[in-house]
Specification:
KDPG/KHG_AS_1; 2-dehydro-3-deoxy-phosphogluconate aldolase; 8-stranded mixed β-sheet; Aldolase_TIM; about 325 residues; 2,3-Dihydroxybiphenyl 1,2-Dioxygenase, domain 1; lyase; EC 4.1.2.14
């Protein structure tokens, strides 16, 4: 998995401001415990370079990058210290070109068509959108994604634990950045358990898992019809017929043939099927690649290989 894929799989890229390098490793470990394995240490303080070096040397599972990089000197210093990616608040051609020529992942801030075109000219397809709240948020990025369909954004500024789900659900969002999961105050106070908790909550909100419906396998169309009629008779659930299945309300799908899963399937909606697949893989749950469906290059549905109590699990894009 390359740097760009790691950022996407994390969903949230913590913007970490450190006043003292001694807190760097503890912060990285708190993020990792919360399921977040990337961090952007900003060059807003004198401790940035030493903090990046400490994490790079002591936390091999953490993908550490440098943020608020505004000069080529900072960029070179960050990579010397072990930064694997560079994030800038704006577009600086000198910094971006150096990163591209030296194989360093870079995400410059681009909020106008002109800036996006400049980034594209240098081969980039992921840019930072900062400050997102000031420059129009989701509606602005949606508008920009029209002419720039190959570009994805990492919005920072205005994203939080309450709205992260709607950002992640948008097809033009690569990941989101933010400091709410590891505030400067919490780091300084040593509130590392709180940081871990906020990371877990952010990941859960990003995925937004919810049960869509339960599928029940039947041998044929007549058997499926009988099940739906019985559900309707007992609970007044409206029946809707389809090609391969019937629905008794929106919550029960009755298959007209024996489909995936010994007994049927459980459909679970998520803000991002691709993010869900990556996260579940870390927990040991692989997906069936042959079952994946795509729309405009984005995975929108997939079945897991595992069964749960005789039921297959079907992931669906919200």
């Amino acid at each position: 998995m390359n740097v760009s894929e790691r950022l996407a799989a994390s969903a949230v890229v913590p913007v970490v401001v450190l006043d003292d390098a001694k807190d760097a490793v503890a912060t990285a470990k708190a993020l990792l415990a919360g399921g977040v394995d990337v961090m952007e240490i900003t060059f807003r303080t004198a401790a940035a370079a030493d903090s990046i070096k400490a994490v790079a040397e002591s936390c091999p599972d953490m993908l550490v990058g440098a943020g608020t990089v505004i000069t080529l000197e900072q960029c070179k210093k960050a990579t010397e210290c072990g930064a694997k990616f560079i994030v800038s608040p704006g577009f600086d051609e000198e910094v971006v070109r150096w990163c591209v020529e030296n194989g360093v992942a870079v995400t410059p801030g681009c909020v106008t068509p002109t800036e996006i075109m400049a980034a594209m000219k240098l081969g980039l397809n992921v840019v930072k959108f900062f400050p997102a709240g000031v420059y129009g948020g989701l509606s602005a990025m949606k508008a920009l994604s029209g002419p720039f369909g190959g570009i994805k954004f990492i919005p920072t500024g205005g994203v939080n634990g309450q709205n992260i789900g709607e950002f992640i659900a948008a097809p033009f969002i690569h990941a989101v950045g933010g400091s709410w999961v590891c505030s400067k105050a919490d780091i300084a106070a040593g509130n590392f358990e709180k940081i871990t908790k906020l990371c877990k909550e952010a990941r859960a909100a990003a995925l937004g898992f919810e049960v869509a419906h339960v599928g029940v396998n039947c041998e044929d169309a007549d058997a499926a019809s009988a099940v739906c009629e019985k559900l309707n008779k007992a609970f007044d659930l409206p029946v809707k017929d389809g090609n391969s299945s019937m629905f008794a309300s929106s919550g029960i799908e009755v298959m007209k043939s024996m489909f995936k899963g010994k007994n049927g399937h459980i459909a679970i909606r998520t803000n991002s099927v691709e993010l869900a697949v990556a996260g579940l893989a870390k927990k040991g749950f692989a997906y069936d690649e042959s079952s994946a469906k795509y729309k405009n290059g984005r995975m929108t549905a997939a079945y897991l290989k595992d069964e749960f109590g005789g039921f297959a699990v079907h992931l669906l894009q919200k």
